[in-house]
Design brief:
Strand content: 15-25%
Distance between the termini: 25 Å
CATH architecture of the largest domain: 3-Layer(aba) Sandwich
Mean pLDDT: 85
CATH class of the largest domain: Alpha Beta
Number of helices: 8
Radius of gyration: 19 Å
Structural class: alpha/beta
Shape: elongated
Order of helices and strands: EHEHEHEHEHEEEEHHHEE
Length: 223
């Protein structure tokens, strides 16, 4: 059973998120301050750190992140601070992802599993339906054993769906996740074009897509 160290000073979030992650098969250790988190890093030996940037007057999530990265642990920030400086600081320290509050538990779960998968050194090939395989180490996509050519944005869009399988992604969320990849300006109309192009390359019938499904009026989902 994989162990997660959850560092959060909001009791309600700690209780609800801890229960949710345990129901998904994780062992969850909770800490509410920088000091207790530092102690838990050494005593509990977690596989992943899930930490709030701001711990009020109980220390800094950045300091806990720094200690975790020295132990070569993956780190995901939970934060209400979505300003660019806070995000950049966390990523520059080596954080693997950040999730702004309020968050959807199943989306967070997908991000946790994705980060853990990279650290576990498992296979880099993700197999989808219709003969599609995505090799994330090589940045290659195969269809029935033959490599297909995707642009940088098409590939990024596909990996976003792969990393969030089973999760409804709104158009705004997709725009947020693929913004400015490869120097391209992405707006709502551009997103429509790229989804159409991607479907033409990976779907057997782009007019009746089986991989990237439209949830009418809400967004898209890959099952």
């Amino acid at each position: 059973m994989q162990k997660i160290l959850l560092v959060e000073d909001d009791i309600a979030i700690t209780k609800s998120l801890g229960e949710f992650l345990r129901s998904e098969g994780f062992d969850v250790v909770c800490a509410a301050s920088e000091r207790s988190a530092q102690q838990a890093l050494m005593a509990e030996k977690p596989q992943l750190l899930l930490v709030d940037v701001s711990l009020e007057n109980r220390g800094s999530g950045f300091n806990v992140c720094r200690s975790a990265k020295m132990l070569k642990l993956p780190v995901i920030f939970l934060t209400a601070k979505t300003d660019e400086d806070s995000v950049v600081k966390g990523l520059d320290m080596g954080a693997d992802d950040y999730v702004p509050k309020p968050f959807r538990p199943r989306e967070l779960l997908s991000r946790i599993r994705n980060v853990l998968r990279h650290y576990e050194g498992g296979t880099s090939v993700v197999t989808l339906g219709l003969g599609i395989a995505v090799d994330t180490d090589r940045g290659a996509v195969m269809k029935n054993g033959r490599e297909i050519s995707l642009s940088a944005l098409e590939y990024k869009l596909l990996t976003v769906f792969v990393d969030n399988r089973g999760i409804l992604l709104t158009r705004n969320k997709l725009l947020e996740l693929i913004w400015d990849i490869a120097g391209d300006y992405v707006n709502d109309n551009t997103l429509t074009v790229y989804i159409k192009r991607l479907r033409e390359k990976i779907e057997d019938d782009p007019q009746d897509p089986q991989l990237i499904k439209t949830v009418r009026g809400l967004g898209y989902r890959m099952d």
